[in-house]
Amino acid sequence: MEVRENFSKSKSMELPRKVVIGHDALLEVETVCDSLKLGKTAVTVVDETTKKVAGDAVMGILSDGAYTVEDFVITEADRETIEEVKTVALENGASFLLGVGGGRPIDVAKCASTDAGLPFISVPTAASHDGIVSSRASIKSDNGRESIVAQSPMAVIMDTYVISQSPHRLLAAGCADIISNSTAVKDWLLARNLKNEYYSSYAASLSEMTAELMIQKAESIKPKLEESAWFVAKALVSSGVAMSIAGTSRPASGSEHLFSHALDNISKPPAQHGEQCGVGTIMMMYLHGGDWERIRNGLLAVGAPTSARGMDISEDDIIEALITAHEVKKDRYTILGDAGLTRDAAENLARTTRVI
Fold first, then answer.
1. pTM score, two decimals?
2. Which of 146, 164, 182 is the last residue of a domain?
3. Structure confidence at residue 135 (pLDDT)
4. Domain presence at residue 123
């Protein structure tokens, strides 16, 4: 008689319970909060710009709906600011936080709410990267920036009009971050094959499909066009969901992200996160033996940079980032391997792909 092993797999996924995308979605903030039954006291995390763009509107809508709301204006996403927001939230008896803005306010709200044991809602004013939906946060550190694990938002509210009015550079960076999934998935598969790393075909397929659709639609992404904001917003949500399904950032973060993180630590100042990842994707796709020129053309079509000059970063910084990228996250195996690239190999790669 055949003896079978007991099935013992278990999986936990953290997904947003509400996602609202569209014109005037900002007006739905009270309805969303009511439906989630989060309580009536909140702290909104904003910066000086996003306070004017959407923060004040969010506070006004919630205040009119009998919510007690206080805003916290930040200047940087670092551990000190996160601790300050957490303290204010707990001292005020806040039942939830809202991150209103681009990367920094959302990352601070994400981390502070995690530390305080409170839920948070993501209200992006720009679609510049998939962190607006994911459980990852980019925080300033002594060596540049570090990527840390926090919690996923309980809800995401993306007003396509507000997003369409943000600088096109930010939307293009979001497109580039999505396109970078192309090499992230290849690195993940490589790690499974060579290192026996956990791999989710469902998450990988969703991430890969999202990147492919973005490349196909690249020509239609235009400045100030709400339809473009609509498409990019949905793609960023898909990318975030892929990471939630996987329980890791692997579906959307590979060697191209290691290159970007290395640039964060080297270049002063660095370019937009998505821009750096896009340029990294060109080079990493070359190393994978894939169609790197298609990646390059897709980035050009959405208005994202494809070179050091386009990012206003020195060629030396590009080379140094390529050489040191493999050291950023030594537990994450990618096409860069354990030893990384030599200086000659890095220079040849950057020149062949026309990055320098």
1. 0.92
2. 164
3. 83
4. yes
Residues 277 and 221 in one domain: yes
DSSP at 154: S
CATH number at residue 145: 3.40.50.1970
Whether residue 4 lies inside any domain: the answer is no
Find, among 325, 327, 316, the residue nearest to 350 by Cα: 316
- Rounded CA gap, 179 and 229, in Å? 16
| CA–CA separation, 127 and 44 (whole Å) | 19
Question: Following CA atoms 343, 352, 176, 148 in sequence, which dihedral angle do they give, to the nearest 10 degrees?
Answer: -10
E runs forming strands in the chain:
18-22, 41-46, 68-73, 96-101, 120-124, 136-141, 144-149, 155-159
Task: Decide: residue 286, CB within 10 A, 0-12 exposed, 13-18 middle, 19+ buried.
Answer: buried
Q: What is the CATH number of the domain that holds 193?
A: 1.20.1090.10
Q: How far apart are the first and last CA of the chain?
A: 65
Q: 185 and 140, same structural domain?
A: no
pLDDT above 80 (res 80):
yes
Distance of CA 136 to the CA centre of its chain: 7
Buried b (16+ CB within 10 A) or exposed e, 196-209: ebebbeebbebbbe
Going by C-beta distance under 8 Å and a sequence separation of 6 or more, which residues neighbour residue 275? 169, 172, 173, 176, 304, 305, 310, 311
Query: What is the residue whose two structure tokens read 């033996």?
Result: 289
Residues 144 and 238 in one domain: no
User: Which of these, 288, 265, 273, lies nearest to 208 by C-alpha position?
Assistant: 288
Same domain, 321 and 173: yes
* Range(s) of the domain holding residue 118: 18-164
Name 82's Cβ contacts closer than 8 Å, sequence gap at least 6. Answer: 108, 111, 112, 115, 139
Residue type, 295: I
Confidence of residue 91 (pLDDT cuts 50, 70, 90): very high
